[in-house]
């Protein structure tokens, strides 16, 4: 059976805290590596993890890109829309924008669409931008 990882499991794998929950999360990944189950990650939970890492753990965008990127690249995890998710982590760090803005820009561009926003961060991203 496939199981979708919640944000809290991603956070345990990145922060390795608290140690008991990290060990349980790691054991889950090991089960997936041995084929006992499969694990998937949705971009919504990647966005949640980036927010918590930034706000509560005070990780920089670069630290988030590096540490969360390591977890998301684990062979045991199937990341939905992996190409855009990893590219959004790169854009987040390179252009100093939030992950959700970077991901939305990449998703819209993939679809041949643009982004309408009152924010200025979209102007930093590779997408057609419209300010209402």
Q: SSE order, as H and E?
A: EHHEHHEHHEE
Can you count the helices?
Answer: 6
Quickly name the level 1 CATH class: Alpha Beta
Q: Name the strands of the widest sheet in spatial order.
A: 1-2-3
Proportion of β residues? 5-15%
Global Rg: 16 Å
Examine the secondary-structure arrangement and name the CATH architecture: 3-Layer(aba) Sandwich
Largest sheet: 3 strands, parallel
Number-wise, the strands total 5
Shape: globular
Q: Give the uncertain stretches in residue-range form.
A: none
Number of structural domains:
1
The proportion of residues forming helix, as a percent range, comes to: 55-70%
Q: What is the CATH T-level topology? A: Rossmann fold
Decide which structural class fits the backbone: alpha/beta
Give the distance, in angstroms, between the N- and C-terminal Cα atoms.
Answer: 44 Å
Provide the residue-averaged pLDDT.
Answer: 97
InterPro entries: PIN-like_dom_sf, PIN_dom
Organism: Thermorudis peleae
Pfam families: PIN (PF01850)
Protein name: Type II toxin-antitoxin system VapC family toxin
How would you characterize this protein structure?
Pfam families: PIN. Residues 5-125 form the PIN domain. It comes from Thermorudis peleae. InterPro entries: PIN-like_dom_sf (IPR029060), PIN_dom (IPR002716). This is Type II toxin-antitoxin system VapC family toxin. There is one protein chain. The chain has 132 residues and is an alpha/beta fold. It has a single domain (2-130), classed as Rossmann fold (3-Layer(aba) Sandwich). 57% of the residues lie in helices and 12% in strands. The protein contains six helices and five strands, in the order E-H-H-E-H-H-E-H-H-E-E. The chain has helices spanning 7-15, 19-33, 43-55, 61-72, 82-95, 99-110; strands at residues 2-4, 38-41, 77-79, 114-116, 128-130. The strands form two sheets. The protein has a three-stranded parallel beta sheet. Helix 5 (82-95) crosses helix 6 (99-110). The longest helix is centred in the N-terminal third of the chain and has 15 residues, at 19-33. The chain is globular, with a radius of gyration of 16 Å. The N and C termini lie far apart (44 Å). The mean pLDDT is 97.
């Amino acid at each position: 059976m496939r199981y979708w990882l919640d944000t809290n499991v991603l956070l345990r794998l990145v922060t390795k805290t608290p140690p008991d929950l990290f060990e349980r999360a790691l054991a889950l990944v090991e089960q997936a590596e041995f084929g006992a189950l499969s694990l998937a990650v949705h971009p919504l939970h990647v966005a949640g993890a980036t927010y918590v890492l930034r706000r509560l753990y005070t990780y920089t965008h670069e630290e988030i890109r590096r540490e969360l990127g390591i977890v998301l690249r684990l062979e045991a995890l199937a990341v939905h829309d992996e190409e855009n998710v990893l590219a959004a982590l790169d854009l987040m760090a390179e252009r100093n924008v939030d992950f959700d803005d970077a991901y939305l820009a990449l998703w819209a561009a993939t679809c041949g669409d643009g982004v309408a926003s009152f924010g200025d961060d979209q102007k930093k991203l590779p997408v057609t931008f419209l300010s209402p």
